[in-house]
Amino acid sequence: MTPTIRKLVVVGGGSAGWMAAAAMKRVFGDLLDVTLVESEAIGTVGVGEATIPAIRLFNTLLGLDEDEFLAATEGSIKLGIEFVDWTRIGHRYLHAFGEVGLPVGRLSFHQYWLRAFEDGDGSDLWDHSLNARAARLNRFDRPEATDRGRIGPLVWAYHFDAGLYAKYLRGWCEARGVRRVQGQVVEVIQGAPDDRVTGVRLEHGDVVEGDLFIDCSGFRGLMIEGALKAGYDDWTEWLPADRAVAVPCASVSPLTPYTRSTARESGWQWR
């Protein structure tokens, strides 16, 4: 018989931990007792985050007010990603979110664009993307202000401070009964017969028990690797870049509603 899950423990804070706690609490409500364990002595890998539109689905699931969320996380709108110098020095390619054009009958727009291109039409495919055109003009508006019968609505994501996002979600969680336990995990407790995780012991001796654990301890992988030895697939052969450096920069105006990825000799630079 499958045991009933009543107590969920999220090990690790940051944006990953608080997103996990928030999602589980939102979906299961009072059916699930959610506890998050984090240590202020352990830093998080928190930099400016450039998201994709799926983040809006997550925020909508939680019922977050977009304006409040943007203010709390010092966020901005993102309509796509511009790639600079990847094909060749001086080349720019803007990959926008959302659909390109509108379907014509039962065929996608790009089918007609390809036929027109073969017939000598020199228009760029992205000229038919509302997101791309808005991004190039540094413009944005919510879809309620667009005529959906003539052109598809804008599709967007965000740039925001990941540390502030975690703080914002912590407030959301605690207001709904999620319990936060401060302390560094020194031992992962496993039980018979299958060595499943049953609890974590903290530095001050307290044990936090649970029926289900989510490991958000970052690169340390306290449970998934440290205790359960799940293994690690090394992708160095395909992903040679092995480090990232986050640095502040001067404020740049105008504020662009897209992420920029610039190719460099030994990697790439995000803005």
Write the layout of secondary structure elements.
Elements: E1 7-11, H1 14-28, E2 33-38, E3 48-50, H2 54-62, H3 66-72, E4 76-78, E5 80-84, E6 92-96, H4 109-118, H5 130-136, E7 157-161, H6 162-174, E8 179-182, E9 185-191, E10 196-202, E11 207-209, E12 212-215, H7 222-227, E13 259-264, E14 267-270
Parallel strand pairs: 1-2, 1-12, 2-8, 5-13
Antiparallel strand pairs: 3-7, 4-7, 5-6, 9-10, 10-11, 13-14
Helix pairs in contact: 1-6
Sequence stretches where pLDDT stays below 50 over 5 or more residues: none
Indicate the radius of gyration in whole angstroms. Answer: 23 Å
Distance between the termini: 51 Å
Total DSSP E strands: 14
Shape: elongated
Note the beta-strand portion. 15-25%
Structural class: alpha/beta
Helix content: 10-25%
- Spatial strand order of the main sheet: 8-2-1-12
Average of the residue pLDDT scores: 89
In DSSP terms, counting alpha (H) and pi (I) runs of 4 or more, how many helices?
Answer: 7
How can the largest sheet be summarized?
A: 4 strands, parallel
- Please trace the helix and strand order, writing H or E for each element: EHEEHHEEEHHEHEEEEEHEE
